[in-house]
Amino acid sequence: MNLQRKIQQLLKPMLQPMIAVLIGLVTGALAIALVGESIMNTYKVMWDGAFGNFYFLTATLARATPIILVGLGLALAFRAGVFNMGAEGQMVLGAVCAALAALYVPGAGIVKLLSAFLAGFIAGGLWSLLAGWMEVKYKVQLLISTLLLNYVAVLFAGYLVAEPFQDKSGSAALAQTPMLDQAVWLPKLFAGMSVHMGFVIAVIGAVILYVVLQFTSSGYEVRMLGKNPFFAEYGGINKHKVLLFSMFFSGGISGLAGTVEVLGSQYRYVEGALTVPGYAWTGLMAALLANSNPLGTAVAAILLAALQTGAMGMERNTEVPLEIASVIQGVLILFVTAKFTLSWWKVKKKAGDVNGAV
Amino acid sequence: EESENNSSTTNEDSKKIALVLPEKMGVNPFFQQMDEGAKQAAEEFGVELKTIESTDHSAIEENLRVAVAEGYDLIITSSFESEDALKKVAAENPDRQFAIIDTLVDLPNVQSVNFREHEAAYLLGAAAGLSTKTDKVGMVVAMDIPLMKKWTVAFEQGLKETNPEAEFLVNYVGSFSDPAKAKELALLQASKGADFVAGASAVGDLGVFEAAKEQGFFTSGQDIDRTEVDPEHVVLSQLKGTDAAAFETVKAFANGSFEPGVVEYGLKEKGVGLTYVTHESKTPLHSFVGQEAIDQVKSLYDEIIAGNKVIENPLSE
Amino acid sequence: MELFDYSLFASAIRMVSPILLAALGGALCARVGIFNVGLEGLILAGAFSAIVGNYYSGSVIIAVLTGAFGGVLVSLLFGLATIKFKANPIVAGIAINFLVLGLTTFGLRAIFQVKGAFYDKDMTGLPKWDLPLIENIPVVGNLLSGHSPLVYTAFIAAILLYVFLFKTVVGFRILAVGKNEAAARSLGLNVTVLQYGAIVASGVLCGLAGAQLSLGQVTMFTEGMTAGRGFIALVAMMLGGSHPIGMIGSSLLFGLMDALSIRLQGFSMPTQFTAMLPYVITIIAMFFLKDRGLESQASGQQSSR
Amino acid sequence: MTYRLEMKEMTKKYGDFLANDGISIQLKKGEVLAIVGENGAGKTTLMRMLYGLEQPTSGEIKLNGKQAQFFGPQNAIEQGIGMVHQHFMLFSDFTVTENIVIGHEPIKNGFFNRKMAAEQVQKLSDQYKIQVNPSKKAGDCSVGEQQRIEILKVLYQGAEIIILDEPTAVLTPFEVDELLKTIRFLADQGKSIILITHKLPEVMKVADHVTVLRNGRVTGNVKKEDTSIDQLATMMVGRELQQLSERNQLNGEPLLELEAVSIKGKSSKPVLDQLSLTVHRGEIVGIAGVSGNGQSELIQAISGLTTVDQGDIRLSGTNLVGKSVAFRRNEGLAHIPEDRFLWGAAKDATIEETGVMGYYHKKAFNKYTFILKNSFREVVKTWIDRFEIKAKSVDDKSGNLSGGNLQKLIVARELGFETDFLIAAEPTRGVDIGAMEYIHEAILEKRNRGDGILLVSSELSEILLLSDRIAVMFEGKIVDILDRKDATEERLSVLMAGGKEDESSAKNTTTA
Ligand SMILES: Nc1ncnc2c1ncn2[C@@H]1O[C@H](COP(=O)(O)OP(=O)(O)OP(=O)(O)O)[C@@H](O)[C@H]1O
Ligand SMILES: Nc1ncnc2c1ncn2[C@@H]1O[C@H](COP(=O)(O)OP(=O)(O)OP(=O)(O)O)[C@@H](O)[C@H]1O
Ligand SMILES: [Mg+2]
Ligand SMILES: [Mg+2]
């Protein structure tokens, strides 16, 4: 009885996105039918492209890696009640700094590797902290400032790799850093498969974040700040400190997302390689889908990544054009947070709770 | 399943070729042409061709690997973005043939098809320098990235060599697909007195053309002969035969003459060029440029193909 | 080279009009408590349908109408997801952006049999209107005259929206819904209808923004031609506090800085830095506009819910 | 004469739970019906069905003898029902006028005619003798004024039957008197009024009929003349109420000392003005005052939620000024906040999470930064037992607790710290008399153990019942301190209104 409850409790946060995905699939089927394709076949190809065999599974996990980390970073911020929209900038700065550290920090491979992680984390963290600090100190709305800081970060990173740190070897046509030394590459988990150590880091990160948020004092402080900042303050929690810490770690984790992409998959920072795939937006969706539950975020991130690799598979193997794949993806996500089992009571209850004036 | 396929080459009658594009071809005529050229050759020479578009950078490697796994005999990819991925995948699959268009990958099982766009850009710059009446010439460039130097630097060189007085205005759109902003930039350059504004902003060029039409200045296009779009204002086009490159690669493979190594496409090979100078155009030459200028550019062209004049690749310092 | 000239301002006004239109649309949504990050998609839908309308009818008026209609269709989808099915507006908004990008690209292929861009030199764009009288005033004339009708529409729409929100009953009720949805419900106001209304209107505005982009600024459609304008509109909306007049200010600030950054490209500064200018200035502006947009947006804490 | 409103055998089920079980009430024109009952007895549920916010599971509603049905608030409003919600439904950024006319705005040439609206509001205000300032922003109005806005809104909508759900919970005694007068006046004008309240003296003052609910059933239906407070209380709680424990005499040392504390605030007048006050061990000091005279700021200044501009605050000799909330709590301060939803709890957090605030870092409940949930759970269970907190489980959201039960949880939490000093602000607001009894008893017990308590309450009866000394606040100052035995409601009222007392009595009392 108790065990059953515990299991239910653990599954609950994951159940919601699952049900939602199911609903999304139904709507997606509609879109496929409209294009005149076979629904079952298209979905099967999509499934195969995402999970069809071990290779595709690992490809999906590889793609999920940065999404999970970005999602975790955002989930942390959301839990603290701040709407951090700046994951992209934080990730990109983390990535470029990690690449530079891996390239230019002297010493053995392991030293380079560790400094790359540190640099990636701190760069992302500080960038995010900047927005947090402006909010705390000057009441500059974080939602807008983080959105704007993205552009600045991406442009700055672009400058770094187009000018001072550009790879002048080879064709020298791309804005990218030189290739990293083999010694700092994150190992692949399986030979010939793209999933790398970063995935393990992301999963461990999810578990750690879950445990920290759910069971430790700091996690409690973060959550209470998010649920009711007045209550947190009243209870003796240092509001500003917790907010700044949350923002720092939130950005730091996003920075790690960039770091593992650089160290585990691209082996250099390439301009646009992190922004074009929209990892930040996908991570944002993952966190929102899972209600900022870290474990749920990881699951949602994998599902979203699967949707993308699945769409690629669909493009390769059916006559459904790539654009339709992105349409189906869009439709799936559109309804993915829909609440079809809306209880009226909840709405009414809320209505009763809100205090008009004061 | 995949790993088994890895080693076995398929023994079907028709050869299977995959064209893995590093981006969605949508916004880029460069890739569209490549796709068309490859398709045409595939049809003519009876090989099977599948074009795979990559949604983003990390999908390139993935697509290459899948193409290997699915047993394609030749895998063609393109441009700098694919360089890293191809190096990895080709090295891991030494028994498979690869080709990469528009950049160099030095591996025993890879054919690199390289363009010397800067030669054509030089000619375009020279033509602009000879044609301008205001001694002001502009260029609207997609993004301020190293790659684009192949266009800007060589263009400026040609411009300054033919017309030392000329001022060169350059502006960056910041995107490959923003015609509205490209148009504003062209208008800006025109307002500063430029009577010729070269478009080098991918899809944005259409915006540059519109600006030219609106304000009555002259412009040029990229890759294919764009003078047809608006012969009154689009007076030149810098050409790049990605279609030919793709066509030739597929053809060679179908005929069994495919070889790893470097294949160069420059002015000499007619892989790049300039309308009226190296290639005929359906539209008659506009008087803004005039036959005299074209003749002068032609002599520059002759010098280059004779090897008397070398246009440095701005990227290889 | 002089940095400031008439063309700088004229260009800023032109460039800013789609942003302003979309910001107004976003503000309407924000005013009924829905944070709309799908502006980018809505504009793109408008841009595409305007071109389709133009191509088939040959009439710019019909083209503008179809542009607005395209925006409305997509916004209804967004409304359905967020209002009817209570989907998270941010997730739904992002999905809308994806969806429209896919749909329009597919539409290019299905309708015009082209990839990437559709351009037809016989297609006529929006006319440029010379304003009688104003046209002849020396400086002002250069600035204000000779724009497309939708540029004027953008600024007029801002003023109309101001009048609508703050002077009419329906506008008043819309404000009420955004301020305190529970209270509005308890009064028996039909919150759902008001929300749908606002969303449809926002679809119209974003559709017009798209039409201005694809028929006013240029006459063509290219894949992803919004190039991030939806997000800039979102920033303009928040910075302007979802207030129509405030948004005129914030989008003009952004437009001017953008135009200025283009001119700064000529100087020996990396373009990446000049391109940062509008964003940095906007952040700095926020130090002076601290509490802007706080009340009117539903986004604030919803993340943690 | 037929009844204006009849509700017959109204039943409302939430799942298996019977919130209302065959409740019937009747109401005539010009009559005031009071509905009383414990927290969670089903009063609000019944009213929500009348206002169209809930659909009854079964039952019948008749208006003027005719069967009626309400599909939503709009529908109910159209049929002449108006409801003043327990939590006000106001738009704080809108003016009073706008708040009143919304939904039925006067229109001129298609535009919202704010001028005419203001005139109409003024007229209505005069007609029913309900004073408001039509052009003020609702958010700037006092709680009492906000209440008047709500009532005018209902009248403006043309309500004949007016429901008031716990309207006096947040009002000052003076405002309560005004409201009760208004209610009577409205009834005399022919309106029918349903008044839900926990305060039995008010019922006796203003009601014609009283219906008592317990556990979703009617346990009493009496005429005002035929009943008494004690009888009503018994019907409500199902048992006799007990007397408070005796207070033992303690003469402790100074515990909390405030010296010349000032807070400037936004306007020209300081919100706290050179305020000095001492609370001794074993003493309850009550703060009486019309709300808005600096009580909230005083509490926040002591607990560290706002910064003081000047002055000293010491707890057991330790200076608190400039120190964090956490520091003060560690030094021995506990605090029952005046607004339980704003400060006291997070609605979305579980009961356990709301309870563990302040405990989570204590040794007994924390190991290697991990919160020891199981140990803490035991503690929460003892609270639930001791205060009879009605909760499904500790994992339920605290927002799902009724106000009274949440309040008991907060009281239990703050008492559980066993600190030397406690701020108790509005400790029984909105709480039923049964629960009130528990809370009063607990506070008194704490005092008897030798701890010091600062009690802030807008309920004069509560102040008089519990305090050893009573300080009266007016415009940020303490105008007088009375001894328990010298204080009467009348004297306090005069002082609260800013009136001066004669010198001698004031001197006597300050030396206590
Ligand atoms: N939507 C609902 N779902 C389940 N139970 C509910 C719901 N609404 C109310 N209840 C339950 O119905 C009972 C009656 O609630 P109601 O709000 O009517 O009490 P009340 O008498 O107004 O209490 P209070 O004095 O605290 O205001 C409570 O036990 C409550 O838990
Ligand atoms: N999710 C829920 N499940 C069951 N009962 C609920 C739930 N949410 C609220 N209730 C009940 O609904 C009733 C009404 O809630 P409400 O917040 O109005 O309580 P209240 O006692 O009137 O509060 P207060 O008077 O302090 O403001 C409460 O009795 C509460 O127990
Ligand atoms: Mg109630
Ligand atoms: Mg209550």
TrEMBL record, chain A:
<feature type="transmembrane region" description="Helical">
    <location>
        <begin position="320"/>
        <end position="342"/>
    </location>
</feature>
<keyword id="KW-0472">Membrane</keyword>
<dbReference type="InterPro" id="IPR001851">
    <property type="entry name" value="ABC_transp_permease"/>
</dbReference>
<feature type="transmembrane region" description="Helical">
    <location>
        <begin position="242"/>
        <end position="263"/>
    </location>
</feature>
<feature type="transmembrane region" description="Helical">
    <location>
        <begin position="54"/>
        <end position="78"/>
    </location>
</feature>
<keyword id="KW-0812">Transmembrane</keyword>
<feature type="transmembrane region" description="Helical">
    <location>
        <begin position="113"/>
        <end position="130"/>
    </location>
</feature>
<feature type="transmembrane region" description="Helical">
    <location>
        <begin position="142"/>
        <end position="162"/>
    </location>
</feature>
<dbReference type="Pfam" id="PF02653">
    <property type="entry name" value="BPD_transp_2"/>
</dbReference>
<feature type="transmembrane region" description="Helical">
    <location>
        <begin position="189"/>
        <end position="213"/>
    </location>
</feature>
<protein>
    <submittedName>
        <fullName>ABC transporter permease</fullName>
    </submittedName>
</protein>
<keyword id="KW-1003">Cell membrane</keyword>
<feature type="transmembrane region" description="Helical">
    <location>
        <begin position="14"/>
        <end position="34"/>
    </location>
</feature>
<feature type="transmembrane region" description="Helical">
    <location>
        <begin position="295"/>
        <end position="314"/>
    </location>
</feature>
<keyword id="KW-1133">Transmembrane helix</keyword>
UniProtKB/TrEMBL annotation, chain C:
<keyword id="KW-0472">Membrane</keyword>
<feature type="transmembrane region" description="Helical">
    <location>
        <begin position="231"/>
        <end position="257"/>
    </location>
</feature>
<feature type="transmembrane region" description="Helical">
    <location>
        <begin position="37"/>
        <end position="56"/>
    </location>
</feature>
<feature type="transmembrane region" description="Helical">
    <location>
        <begin position="62"/>
        <end position="83"/>
    </location>
</feature>
<feature type="transmembrane region" description="Helical">
    <location>
        <begin position="187"/>
        <end position="211"/>
    </location>
</feature>
<keyword id="KW-0812">Transmembrane</keyword>
<feature type="transmembrane region" description="Helical">
    <location>
        <begin position="269"/>
        <end position="289"/>
    </location>
</feature>
<dbReference type="Pfam" id="PF02653">
    <property type="entry name" value="BPD_transp_2"/>
</dbReference>
<dbReference type="InterPro" id="IPR001851">
    <property type="entry name" value="ABC_transp_permease"/>
</dbReference>
<protein>
    <submittedName>
        <fullName>ABC transporter permease</fullName>
    </submittedName>
</protein>
<keyword id="KW-1133">Transmembrane helix</keyword>
<feature type="transmembrane region" description="Helical">
    <location>
        <begin position="6"/>
        <end position="30"/>
    </location>
</feature>
<keyword id="KW-1003">Cell membrane</keyword>
<feature type="transmembrane region" description="Helical">
    <location>
        <begin position="90"/>
        <end position="112"/>
    </location>
</feature>
<feature type="transmembrane region" description="Helical">
    <location>
        <begin position="150"/>
        <end position="175"/>
    </location>
</feature>
Automatic annotation (TrEMBL), chain D:
<feature type="domain" description="ABC transporter">
    <location>
        <begin position="256"/>
        <end position="500"/>
    </location>
</feature>
<keyword id="KW-0547">Nucleotide-binding</keyword>
<dbReference type="InterPro" id="IPR003439">
    <property type="entry name" value="ABC_transporter-like_ATP-bd"/>
</dbReference>
<dbReference type="GO" id="GO:0005524">
    <property type="term" value="F:ATP binding"/>
</dbReference>
<protein>
    <submittedName>
        <fullName>ABC transporter ATP-binding protein</fullName>
    </submittedName>
</protein>
<feature type="domain" description="ABC transporter">
    <location>
        <begin position="5"/>
        <end position="240"/>
    </location>
</feature>
<dbReference type="InterPro" id="IPR050107">
    <property type="entry name" value="ABC_carbohydrate_import_ATPase"/>
</dbReference>
<keyword id="KW-0067">ATP-binding</keyword>
<dbReference type="Pfam" id="PF00005">
    <property type="entry name" value="ABC_tran"/>
</dbReference>
<dbReference type="InterPro" id="IPR027417">
    <property type="entry name" value="P-loop_NTPase"/>
</dbReference>
<dbReference type="InterPro" id="IPR017871">
    <property type="entry name" value="ABC_transporter-like_CS"/>
</dbReference>
<dbReference type="InterPro" id="IPR003593">
    <property type="entry name" value="AAA+_ATPase"/>
</dbReference>
